[in-house]
Amino acid sequence: MELKQPLYAQIKQLLTQRICAGEWSAAEALPSEWELAEQMSVSQGTVRKALTELVGEGVLYRQQGRGDVHCGGSERLGGWSSADPGVV
């Protein structure tokens, strides 16, 4: 039996893939939680939980008035790159 990942974990993985693909450069702010939720057709709370985990892992940092910002460097993503298998 295959267990499905929780939705926030799927969103976290999607955001990680988009970061690795270079959609946002280092020190660039990501779209707001509301915009990401709209893009992905999920609730803002789901996006918030995914972003909070990425902040906890050091992939993003939060800056007052600016939002969630990409720290840069694939080492923060566990060595993921857009060339890794399974990364879109």
Please characterize this protein's 3D structure.
This protein is mostly helical and 88 residues long. The protein contains three helices and two strands, in the order H-H-H-E-E. It has helices at residues 7-20, 33-40, 44-56; strands spanning 60-63, 67-70. A hairpin with a 3-residue loop joins strand 1 (60-63) and strand 2. Helix 1 packs across helix 3. The protein is globular, with a radius of gyration of 13 Å. The model is unreliable at 79-88 (pLDDT under 50).
Number of strands: 2
- Can you name the CATH architecture? Orthogonal Bundle
* Gyration radius, rounded: 13 Å
Question: How many discrete domains?
Answer: 1
N-to-C CA distance: 25 Å
Strand order across the largest sheet? 1-2
Beta percentage is 5-15%
Could you state the CATH homologous superfamily? Winged helix-like DNA-binding domain superfamily/Winged helix DNA-binding domain
The chain-level mean pLDDT equals 82
Which CATH C-level class is it?
Answer: Mainly Alpha
Helix content class = 25-40%
CATH topology: Arc Repressor Mutant, subunit A
Which structural category fits the helices and strands? mainly alpha
The H-and-E topology, N to C, reads as HHHEE
Largest sheet: 2 strands, antiparallel
Q: What coarse outline follows from CA principal-axis ratios?
A: globular
